Amino acid sequence: MMDLRAELPPRQQIADLRLAAQHIGTARRILVMGCSGGGKSTLSLKIATRFRLSYISLDRDVFWLPGWVTRDRGEQRNIIASRILEERWIMDGTNPSSLDIRLPRTDFVIWVRMPRLLCIWGVVSRWVRWIGRTRPEMAAGCIEKIDWEFVRFIWTFEDKFVPRIISGIAEHGPDVPVLQLKSRREVRELLDLLHAPA
Questions:
Q1: Domains along the chain?
Q2: How far, in Å, CA of 187 to CA of 181, rounded?
Q3: Within a 10 A sphere around the Cβ of 100, how many other Cβ atoms?
């Protein structure tokens, strides 16, 4: 498994959760990335609520139309280009092909980088919870589903997408601090710090 800390310059890495919480508390625009099932939407929504940031879901607001129809790529980029102009937001979604327009407007990146088996468990348990319904962070008319193609996407995420993500961060956000969360415990600790009295 590739280690993000070995790929980013030391000045860009935030390893201390207290320091990360301080960054998040003052950031106006936060990008949350990671593999499906890792918990990035749940974390994004909690941070959005805590700091009154506009919550932007790439799945709900950009990619999907009802019935799991993919929106035209040009229209996707136009929507992203419009939304990033807002003053305060947290954007939930990885999409390496749009890092060129998102990272320059981002103050802080949270990389939710859970082990792939945990991500698969996350999507299976999410499917069970929302079976036959659409979850709030998904586009209307996109009933929760899971199939082998989606499982394969998760299983190969590190190999296929992480190099593109790291390259995108290096090229388009070389000065943006990045926090990497690799366990549920780290996520809980971060949330505790974010909700602690100032």
A1: 23-195 (3.40.50.300)
A2: 6
A3: 13
